[in-house]
Amino acid sequence: MLEVQNVTKIFGGLTAVNDVTMNIPDRSIISVIGPNGAGKTTFFNMITGIYTPTKGTIRLAGREMVGLRPDQVVEAGIARTFQNIRLFSTMSSEENIMVGRHVRLKSTFIDAVLHTKRFHQSEAEAREAARVMLDFVGLSKWRNELATNLPYGDQRKLEIARALATTPKLVLLDEPAAGMNPRETEDLKALIRRIRDDLGVTVCLIEHDMRLVMTLSEYITVLDYGSKISEGLPHQVRNDPRVMEAYLGRGAAAGEYGKEATPNA
Ligand SMILES: Nc1ncnc2c1ncn2[C@@H]1O[C@H](COP(=O)(O)OP(=O)(O)OP(=O)(O)O)[C@@H](O)[C@H]1O
């Protein structure tokens, strides 16, 4: 599905991502982990067209993504959520998802201004897609509620629903469990499995909650200081001394996230 080859990103003198190669198979659930500042978000930002890699190629089903704008990457089939929730807080849950859906609609700006038949058809289609997505993520009861009024865990789910409304082939989730309580995290795990199983969407996540990562991921890639230091099945990564060293060798990482964040937690 996604082939990332020898990707590097240099900011001034800092190499944030260093020669990383990674393949994401179709319909898999993959995680990218690593201590603070390891380069995970920069990696997502390159895949989604926010940053252009200094070097390397990124192909989605054989099509080169490097050089595309973020909106073109979404159209190609890659959607994402952000580490810090980025919902339109003064819009309802339904409207937030409709915004995501617009990338797939046929009506133009002119249609919207002139309120043409095509515009009304598109609006109806977007509203129906939003209804289906709200139902899928279990947020139907919040349909008309402003996004800002939703409980935190539900705001994260709404972001996922908005990403899914673009009908992606691949969805990138940046710390989806951040700030969630254990029950919300269990719900999220079930939702991520359904995204893959029911919608056939490939999932790649960045996550610090190691319990979630180890039980959900089929394959894990570990970054540290921008470089890939390990990859493999959860039990292989968990037992890799380089990974433990990356987390526990840095008191800051262990202290900041506590036991939950270490691969053996
Ligand atoms: N736009 C930028 N300009 C300069 N440096 C940047 C920029 N974006 C990220 N960096 C640096 O690149 C490195 C990797 O950052 P990145 O945010 O990708 O790490 P991360 O693994 O996502 O960290 P975290 O787990 O804390 O979110 C850091 O040293 C960061 O300060």
From TrEMBL:
Keyword Lyase found? no
- UniProt-listed GO biological process terms: D-alanine transmembrane transport; L-alanine transport; L-isoleucine import across plasma membrane; L-valine import across plasma membrane
Q: Which PANTHER family match?
A: AMINO ACID ABC TRANSPORTER ATP-BINDING PROTEIN (PTHR45772:SF7), CONSERVED COMPONENT OF ABC TRANSPORTER FOR NATURAL AMINO ACIDS-RELATED (PTHR45772)
List the GO terms this entry assigns under cellular component, sorted alphabetically: plasma membrane
Q: Which domain of life is it from?
A: Bacteria
Instruction: Supply the InterPro entries for this chain.
Output: AAA+_ATPase, ABC_AA/LPS_Transport, ABC_transporter-like_ATP-bd, BCA_ABC_TP_C, P-loop_NTPase
Question: PROSITE patterns this protein is in?
Answer: ABC_TRANSPORTER_2
Identify the CDD domains for this entry: ABC_Mj1267_LivG_branched (cd03219)
> What is the protein's name according to its record?
ABC transporter
Q: Which residues form a coiled coil?
A: none
Instruction: Cite the ABC transporter domain residue spans from the record.
Output: 2-250
Q: Which UniProt keywords apply?
A: ATP-binding, Nucleotide-binding, Transport
State if Nucleotide-binding is listed as a keyword.
Answer: yes
Q: Which GO terms describe its molecular function?
A: ATP binding; ATP hydrolysis activity; L-isoleucine transmembrane transporter activity; L-phenylalanine transmembrane transporter activity; L-valine transmembrane transporter activity
